[in-house]
Amino acid sequence: MKAEYDDVDAMRQAFAALAATAKPLDDCPEPPRLWAAARGEASPGETRDLIDHTASCPVCAEAWRLAVRLEDAAPASGRQPVRRPAVAQWWPAAAAAALVVAAVGVYQLREPAPPPVPTLRSAAEAGVVSDLAADAVLPREACVLAWHPEPAREGLRYAVQVTTDDLRPVVEADDLAAPRFEVPAAALAELPPGARILWRVEAFLPGGRRLASETFSVRIE
Amino acid sequence: MLRQKLARAVGAVCPSWLADQRDDIVQVALIRVMDVRRKSEGEREFSSSYLWRTAYSALVDEIRRLRRRQEVTLEEETSTHEAVSPGPEQRARGHQIGAGIRSCLGHLVRPRRLAVTLYLQGHTVPQVARLLGWSPKRADNLVYRGLADLRQCLTEKGLSP
Question: How far apart are CA A82 and CA B142, in angstroms?
Answer without folding.
Answer: 24
